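Lab manual, section 2.4: Encoding a predicted structure.

Procedure: take the sequence of the chain (139 residues), apply the prediction step described in section 2.3, and record the output as structure tokens. A sample record is shown.
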Amino acid sequence: MFKTGTWVGAGRWPNQNAHPDQWHKPIRGQVLDFCDVRAWANSIYFPEDVPHAGNVMGIALKLQAEGKLDGLTPVCWDFITHRRVLWEKTAALRPYEDDILIWRAARALRRDEIDHPRRRKPRDIREFLPEQQKHLVLA
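Recorded output:
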């Protein structure tokens, strides 16, 4: 579970299928409170841009009590040109610093694959991570 305001990532980076030199940094998002008005704006419960905070609190608490929000976290993603709030599976999120480390390792792995196309046994991404961060790949 992430605290409100924490910067997170989900293993998403633009141009992921392009050459690694064209990969942009991972998209980062900020965790919102489940009662945040932005998380409920333009949803099936509130089809308006700015719903009333009291109504949002009532619906959010009701859905939480029913267990319908278990395992979900509202995240405000920063796409540079715009921001968008999405409800994400909490298990798919990780701290943004960890996302950057995995992005760097994946980029190095892909460069290695391009530089050595005839290698019979592919290298593991853990070879490109610092020793104390190798556990991140298992997530």
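Check your result against the sample. The chain has a mean pLDDT of 91.
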